[in-house]
Amino acid sequence: MGLSASQARLLTITARKSDCEYESMRLSHQKIALSRDMNKISAEYDKAMSQTKLVYDYYGNRSEATDLTYGLLMTPSAMNNYTPMPITDNSGRVVLDARLAKAARDAGIPQEGLDGLPSSDIRNQFIDSLASTGYISQFQAENIKKTTYNQMAGVGSSDLVNIATSEGTLQDLIKAVSNEYFDFSDVTGFTNGFVDGVHFESQANGTATAAPGKVSFADILNGNFMVLAETKDDYNNLTVDGGVTDVLCNLTVWDCMFEVFESKLDTGDGYTQAALAYARRMITDMMTNLGAGMDVGQGDYGSHSGVGIVGTKEGNDYSSDGKNIHDNFGDWRELNDRYDSVVNREARDDNSADTIGINGIYNHDNDGKSDDDSCMSIASVNVSNMFKAYLTYFAQYMEGIGESSYEVKNKASQSNLIDDVFKFTLVEDVDVSGDNRLIAAFWDTLFNQICTNGWVENDNVNDKDYLQESLKNGNVYISTLSDDGYYYQGNYGTNTNIKEITDEEGIAQAEARYNREKSKINYKENILDMKMKNLDTEISSLSTEYDTVKSVISKNVEKVFKRYNA
Fold this sequence. Notes:
Elements: H1 3-48, E1 52-56, E2 66-67, H2 70-74, E3 87-88, E4 94-96, H3 98-106, H4 120-132, H5 138-146, E5 165-168, H6 170-176, E6 181-183, E7 195-204, E8 207-210, E9 214-216, H7 217-222, E10 225-231, H8 242-248, H9 255-265, H10 270-294, E11 310-311, H11 325-328, E12 357-365, E13 375-382, H12 383-399, E14 424-427, H13 435-453, E15 455-457, H14 464-473, E16 477-481, E17 487-490, E18 498-502, H15 504-565
Parallel strand pairs: 4-15, 11-12
Antiparallel strand pairs: 1-2, 1-18, 3-16, 5-14, 6-9, 7-8, 7-10, 10-13, 12-13, 16-17
Helix pairs in contact: 1-15, 3-4, 4-5, 5-13, 8-10, 10-12
């Protein structure tokens, strides 16, 4: 090989060797990068092995647990029992996605919320906007707007289903309570050391007859029913003590009246609820005062203070100071022969029932004869008048206590009790089987939360992973309806339906992803190893050839110098 050719070959070998070494270094860097990728997916896999997820478990047994999503919490369904669970930020504002935020803006609800609860018109604007974006159908929107807006849903009322109402008179109310009963059977026939018996009676046309212990509200309001407590026949001088009081004035006896009327009249409106509370308080005070006024010891009339009506069989009973009782209590009317009990079955005059609350205290002998020194006393409460008094107090408050013509006095004849002129707003039976009312209740409740607490827009909440991580990290919270009818904010752990469980599916997916990525990296590494091995072989061969060509060039140069030096 000539010198020039050898030198050219040497340059070619040098260039090729440099290229191979550079490629080998580049492949080495790729292999290092693959090692970093392997470390990364290994770390992700280790983390995934302990990962959890949030599920909504309505039944509490994981039989129908489903992944927690924004839509599940913020749209009505049987899964959430048609009760919204708003996602809220650390200021308590409701987090809305883009479409819900548009509905809030279209309804004119500022992000800081409204100062008070809005009208049904604003609620309907909110519903119309939801339909315009396809969040709900137009058909569903029209059905929702047909229901009465429940202004108290989620802000004081735990009954979210919209209440259907109708206007009616006293007779309509009587019809509505015709299947409700005043049950006095637990105390009928009650006796103790002082009381000989308790009777439930109905009086008509001057005749008192025994009534069953359970009487319908309609019969009571249309009739004249009384509860009577009778002392034992060896007590006289109008003795009445706590034994009688415990029976007739025990407030638990009247709980049934309160509950039934409230169930028919409580529309959820704050003013109506205040009127019901006023009526309950007035009746409670009346019974408390009547009970206190009846607590009198034997022969002691000093505590009567005008409560009830007192009379004697013949007007011959005297007080402890020796004076005829009418000398001390001239304003109390004598009721000669105006009494009756199931025992002696004598007629009682209609005037004896002309009171609200305590009918009167009657003293008579045990067989109806005035010459018998052994006497009994009877105290009674007019149940019919008490029912009417309750409704009268309710009507009085609804019209304005200072403006209403309705009035309750001690005597029924002097009172202006409830009549058919007053118009009641009656609660109709709610058909909870229909989804329309349940759906409307859901949107009313969520709407009220947006109005009272304000709102903030974040469309990322529709991403399940984003939402769950935000809940776990405490960036957002869940507000849950409490038994008192209000929503309270807390972390996801405070909601009994939300569980954090091991994400078995996520772990399996992570493992599959790890194995897949690991196989890719191993394949790439094998390719790189093969390329690097080939490069090493080529570099070794080039090095050998380089040394050979260099040796040839050295020998050629040496021969040239020797030739010209000869």
